[in-house]
Design goal:
This protein is mainly beta. It contains two helices and seven strands; from the N terminus they run αββαβββββ. The chain has a six-stranded antiparallel beta barrel.
Amino acid sequence: MSLLDEAFESFTIIDRITTDDGYGGVVTEWKDGASIQGALVFDSSSEMKVAQSLGSTAAYTLTVRKNINLDYHSVIRRESDGHIFRILSNSDDRKTPKSAGLNMLQYSAEEWVLS
């Protein structure tokens, strides 16, 4: 088991499902999707503290294996405490090169509330 594997914990991708409400509008439901493993770290840098004082939301970095491709604005739930996060980057933004021995991909994320 690698150090990266030891840092991983369980997350569930939450899928947004929209259906007609029968009156010309839509109903939004959130349903549990696939389970993934990842490591989520809070950005406590000086730059982020300044950004938060100016109204920015808390920023996190999610590290997963390269085969976990999440779309921009995907929603995930951390199973250890039920907190919800929204992905704020694309999978091509931060991944290790093919020649690297590390099998990891990183996403930016923020805490989020299902609506």
